[in-house]
TrEMBL record:
Residues 86-124 form a coiled coil. The keyword Transcription does not apply. One of its GO terms (biological process) is intracellular protein transport. This is Syntaxin-1A. Its main location: membrane. Residues 210-244 form the T-SNARE coiled-coil homology domain. It is found in: Cytoplasmic vesicle, Secretory vesicle, Synaptic vesicle membrane. It holds the Pfam family Syntaxin.
């Protein structure tokens, strides 16, 4: 029976609570001086129950990040659709980005805690079904976390390119043509006034174009700050997942989903 259950676990490493509850059963011991049975319960159930509660909590956090990323995409589209987006929409976007950062830090901390407990047991040369289950769960959650954060990074990078494209078009409206490299240099300067250089402000069209340029530039600055804040955390988790992939061997590697370590940063 145990062999059959473990085969199910290997096929479906995420749904393990049932497996754990069926494997861990009370152990009955006989008292040599008494005819009465004495039940001795090995309290590994409680430990694994607590572990699975933690797993569910982490999975919930990751799902929350995924939902927020989809909402961020909608906010991006709404902001890009208007030359002068309303402040409420921009504030809501900032709140979403802040929430993603906070939740991601929680996930990272909890995954680190699990990783440390696994390393402690491995350091004592312990090997058990429980330990293998915990390692599988940790690996699964780590990959899921990196995938959702990769999607968030791709979303942010795409938004930056779209904002950059709008700036380039508005500069063309004012009669100023720039290459992609020149525009990058202007963005990196961090000086909004550089966009007004050489623009003759003698028409409402030029003024409107400059206003949108300033708006998009402000969005790009916020975006780059957000990407930088998450950079260290993302790279840390991506390297962990990459080491897990190498440890599991080439047959375990898959090409589905964003690859670990693919983080786009501003130049």
């Amino acid at each position: 029976m145990l062999g059959s259950l473990w085969s199910q676990v290997q096929q479906d490493p995420v749904g393990l609570p049932e497996f754990c509850s069926r494997v861990h059963t009370p152990v009955q011991a006989k008292d040599s001086d008494d005819d009465d049975d004495v039940t001795v319960t090995v309290d590994r159930d409680g430990f694994m129950d607590e572990f699975f509660e933690q797993v569910e909590e982490i999975r919930g956090f990751i799902d929350k990040i995924s939902e927020n990323v989809e909402e961020v995409k909608r906010k991006h589209s709404a902001i890009l659709a208007s030359p002068n987006p309303d402040e409420k929409t921009k504030e809501e976007l900032e709140e979403l980005m802040s929430d993603i950062k906070k939740t991601a830090n929680k996930v990272r901390s909890k995954l680190k805690s699990i990783e440390q407990s696994i390393e402690q047991e491995e350091g004592l040369n312990r090997s058990s079904a429980d330990l293998r289950i915990r390692k599988t769960q940790h690996s699964t959650l780590s990959r899921k976390f990196v995938e959702v954060m990769s999607e968030y990074n791709a979303t942010q990078s795409d938004y930056r390119e779209r904002c950059k494209g709008r700036i380039q078009r508005q500069l063309e409206i004012t009669g100023r043509t720039t290459t992609s490299e020149e525009l990058e240099d202007m963005l990196e300067s961090g000086n909004p006034a550089i966009f007004a250089s050489g623009i003759i402000m003698d028409s409402s069209i030029s003024k409107q174009a400059l206003s949108e340029i300033e708006t998009r530039h402000s969005e790009i600055i916020k975006l780059e700050n957000s990407i930088r804040e998450l950079h260290d955390m993302f790279m840390d988790m991506a390297m962990l997942v990459e080491s897990q992939v190498r440890a599991s061997g080439p047959t375990q590697r898959t090409d589905s989903g964003p690859g670990p370590g693919r983080l786009t940063l501003p130049r």
